[in-house]
Amino acid sequence: MTPAAGSRAPDFTARNQHGEQVRLSDYAGRSDVVLVFYPYAFSGVCTSELAALRDRPDLLAAAEFLAISCDPMFTLRAYADAQKLEFGLLTDFWPHGAIASSYGVFDAERGCALRGTFVVDQAGIVRWSVVNPIPEARNLDDYARALATLGHDLG
């Protein structure tokens, strides 16, 4: 079940593309967080979405963006290097899909995350979310509008 706006975001710990532990609750009181679940590193739609995000410094400056897939950490490192992605890419590889499942966006038949996005405020509360079908890219302007409701000026 997808956490509704106004509910507490499920906490998690995962490794990023550099092998560092990242815990959602560590951002409490420091930064709003945007969780961007995506199906597969190196796939066409995922690559275009994350490259578009990479090319939006206004968004990246407004909140901490954490992109999450079920790919292994070393795949995410190669992907980040190849695409010049400097925001966090988190692995949900093992236990496979546990983070995506806690957010209601794990496709068990395909073994990957759906395109779910969750804006989590500094108090750890989900303020906005959207879930798109796997082949459908998200609109980054929706992120900007959601972050604007938290007081971020994104023009």
Notes on the structure:
- There is one protein chain.
- By secondary structure, this protein is an alpha/beta fold.
- It has a single domain (7-149), classed as Glutaredoxin, CATH 3.40.30.10.
- The chain is 27% helix and 25% strand.
- α3 links the parallel β4 (64-69) and β5.
- Homodimer. Forms both dimers and octamers; a tightly-associated dimer and a ring-like octamer.
- Its EC number is 1.11.1.29.
- Residues 3-152 form the Thioredoxin domain.
Number-wise, the strands total: 9
Q: How do the strands line up in the largest sheet?
A: 5-4-3-8-9
Main sheet makeup = 5 strands, mixed
Q: Round the mean pLDDT to the nearest integer and report it.
A: 96
Instruction: Give the CATH architecture.
Output: 3-Layer(aba) Sandwich
CATH class: Alpha Beta
The general outline is globular
Quote the beta fraction. 15-25%
- What Rg is obtained from the alpha carbons, in whole angstroms? 14 Å
Structural class: alpha/beta
**Span from first to last CA?**
33 Å
CATH superfamily: Glutaredoxin
- The H-and-E topology, N to C, reads as EEEHHEHEHEEEEH
Share of helical residues: 25-40%
What is the count of structural domains?
Answer: 1
Number of helices: 5
CATH topology: Glutaredoxin
Task: Give the low-confidence spans.
Answer: none
Organism: Kribbella pittospori
Family: Belongs to the peroxiredoxin family. AhpE subfamily.
Domain Thioredoxin: 3-152
InterPro entries: AhpC/TSA (IPR000866), Peroxiredoxin_AhpC-typ (IPR024706), Thioredoxin-like_sf (IPR036249), Thioredoxin_domain (IPR013766), Tpx_Peroxidase_subfamily (IPR050455)
